[in-house]
Design goal:
229 residues, alpha/beta, Nucleotidyltransferase, domain 5, five-stranded mixed beta sheet
């Protein structure tokens, strides 16, 4: 199986390629340039380095949120365009599950904990083999942590952002290593190999696919506030 993975849910951007069921390319950037400027050149480099053409792909995997509203939108638009060009199946994956997959096989349940700004988090709790215990949600950190009643390992940039609140919650926890706190395209393509889903191109399904934001954007919230005023 040949797979292209695209991860743009944060300021970090990454692309990965699976060729004949082996990960043969992975790139990662954390620079102050928008995804719209760097994503397509990354994809072109990834395919060239893997000696693959777009038509050789069996699937494209995309991290579909939650995360950066702009980043997710750009990544999904690019993935849709590529899929439509050569009728390639599209496989969207929840960013919180991508994060948890960095710790697949852990001895403890995996708590994905992403900073959502505005003193909120995106979070979900998974078993070591990535089954949902607490479904993905947008919440106040303290409120979500109050739901944790078992030892966990916490992963994501929310670990650093809300370290004091995590300590104050008195939950029994361990933390992931720094490099594991980043959702990457390499983990994304690994999930397809692990999940082994039935993939087929469906124009209508891909057309209708929307980013999974878990909450309204700040612009939408501001607009709603103005209407209420």
């Amino acid at each position: 199986m040949n797979i292209l993975g695209i991860e743009t849910s944060s300021s970090w951007g990454s692309v990965a390629v699976v060729k004949d069921d082996r990960i043969v390319f992975s790139s990662y950037l954390d620079i102050k340039v928008t995804h719209s400027e760097r994503l397509l050149p990354q994809i072109d480099t990834a395919l060239r380095s893997s000696s693959l053409a777009l038509a050789d792909l069996d699937a494209i995997a995309i991290s579909n949120g939650p995360g950066s509203f702009t980043g997710i939108r750009i990544g999904l638009a690019a993935a849709k365009g590529l899929c439509f060009a050569d009728e390639i199946p599209l496989y969207p994956v929840n960013t919180l599950r991508v994060l948890a997959a960095n710790l697949y096989g852990s001895k403890l349940p995996i708590l994905s904990f992403m900073d959502a700004r505005m003193q909120e988090i995106y979070a979900a709790l998974y078993t070591p083999d990535l089954q949902e215990i607490i479904a993905p949600c947008n919440a106040k950190p303290a409120e979500f942590l109050a739901r944790i009643d078992q030892p966990v390992v916490i992963i994501g940039d929310g670990v650093i952002r809300f370290k004091d609140l995590i300590i104050e919650s008195k939950i029994d926890y361990k933390t992931a290593l720094p490099h594991q706190n980043i959702p990457t395209a390499m983990t994304l393509v690994s999930l397809i190999l692990h999940d082994n889903p039935q993939l087929s191109f469906d124009f209508e399904t891909i057309s209708a696919l929307e980013p999974w934001y878990l909450r309204k954007s700040q612009a939408e919230l501001n607009k709603k506030t103005k209407r209420e005023d």
